[in-house]
Design a protein that fits this description.
single chain; Alpha-Beta Plaits; 153 residues; globular; 24% helix; alpha+beta
Length: 153
C-alpha cells in the first residue's frame, strides 16, 4: 500500500477527556454490545486525569500481519488497515508479540484477536469524539510526513 493512500488516526492527547465514548461505540459497532475490553481503541489512565487513547497506528511494515502463521491478518488495499479473519484466527498471539505498540489483544471470551480496521474508512471513534466536542481523534489520509507538515498550518 502506498503511503499517500493510507488512513490513520491522529490522537491529540491533550484533548482526550477520558469519557470512553470511543470504546463504547467501537464495541457496539464491532461486537454488537457494549464491551470495552473488546474495543479496538482503549483508554488508559496511568495517573488520575491523564488519559491515553491507545490504538493501532497501521504500521507501514505490518509486523502483526507478517507474523500470523495462518494468514488470518490481511491489509485493506483501500485504507491500509489490518483486517482480521475471525474464522482463520487461531488465537495464538503471535501478532500481539510482534506489535511494537502492544496493541492487538485477545479479550477474554473471544477466540480471535482484535485490531482496529478503521471501520472500513469511516471510524466511529473519530465521529463520536468530534460529536462530543472533544476532537481528540482525527482521521488523516496520506503519508505521515506529509500530514504532519499540514496539521499545524
Amino acid at each position: 500500500m502506498k503511503e499517500e493512500g493510507r488512513l490513520w488516526i491522529l490522537v491529540d492527547y491533550y484533548r482526550c477527556s477520558g469519557c470512553r465514548l470511543c470504546e463504547i461505540i467501537c464495541s457496539l459497532k464491532n461486537e454488537g454490545r457494549i464491551w470495552p475490553e473488546a474495543s479496538r481503541i482503549r483508554i488508559f489512565e496511568e495517573v488520575p486525569g491523564a488519559t491515553i487513547p491507545h490504538l493501532c497506528v497501521q504500521c507501514s511494515d505490518y509486523p502483526c500481519v507478517n507474523s500470523c502463521p495462518v494468514g488470518a491478518l490481511t491489509v485493506d488495499d483501500r485504507t491500509g488497515a489490518v483486517i482480521v479473519d475471525e474464522e482463520k484466527c487461531v488465537g495464538c498471539g503471535k501478532c500481539v508479540e510482534a506489535c511494537p505498540g502492544n496493541v492487538p489483544r485477545i479479550p477474554r471470551g473471544k477466540r480471535s484477536v482484535v485490531i482496529c480496521d478503521l471501520c472500513g474508512g469511516d471510524p466511529e471513534c473519530v465521529k463520536i469524539c468530534s460529536e462530543a466536542g472533544y476532537g481528540a481523534l482525527k482521521l488523516y489520509r496520506g503519508g505521515l510526513q506529509t500530514d504532519l507538515q499540514n496539521i499545524h498550518t
